[in-house]
# Entry
Amino acid sequence: MELYLDLISPPCRSVFLLAKVLQIPFDFKLVQLMTGQQYSEEFGQINLIKKVPVMKEGSFILTESVAILKFLAQKHASSAVDHWYPADLQQQARVNEYLSWQHLNLRVHGSRVFLLWAFYPLVTGSEVPKKKTDAAVEDLKQSLNLLEEKFLQDKPFIIGDQVSLADLVAIVEIMQPAGTGLDVLEGRPRLIAWRERVEQEVGKQLFAEAHASIMKASSVLQEMQSSSSSSSSSSGGSSSSSSSHLQALVPRFQKVLHHFSLI
# Structure
């Protein structure tokens, strides 16, 4: 099995973590989103949508993270790991309920915070207006309120006493804005305790491995911005080449920001 991933992406991290936890052998195929590898002709032959994650098993290709997660959990289910996507219909429905809700809530709002910080300065050449950041953070807070009050409540995990795909998907989205240095769980002891339980279930070392890319995203983006700045006073060489590559990606970044109504 091949998994096409970039661990800077929350959906990719959820697929990576589940495959590792279930001890599923796979070849990690890196598709570097920040350099635009997802738009290459080669990757387009694997996924016409040009997004990650993608699972390829022989001639069977599956896109969309939720579909991949369910496929892996069901194919590799056993009495020991059935809790990831329970066979019990009501428990399974609770997982599906969260997975359906999160796309336009925790996912989109966590992504907005990260994208504002990550791409807005690259695209516009200016700092993010405080009004935009405040609005994005407030939307994220509202999604966190619903995660806590509707889905988690007083349970150890979202669907009850055992961890599931719902928790896995939620935690990777919460970690995305952490790449901006924002502690989104500050003042939320129930969610902090829940995060610690999920990390424990996944394994702290594996959890840290999966999130290493997002936690160092700031330095990567600073290098990209520095490369862009230095090119204005340099001609030729690797700096110019790097800047040219960055400038070629700016229209793509603009589309992402437009998609999230950030510019």
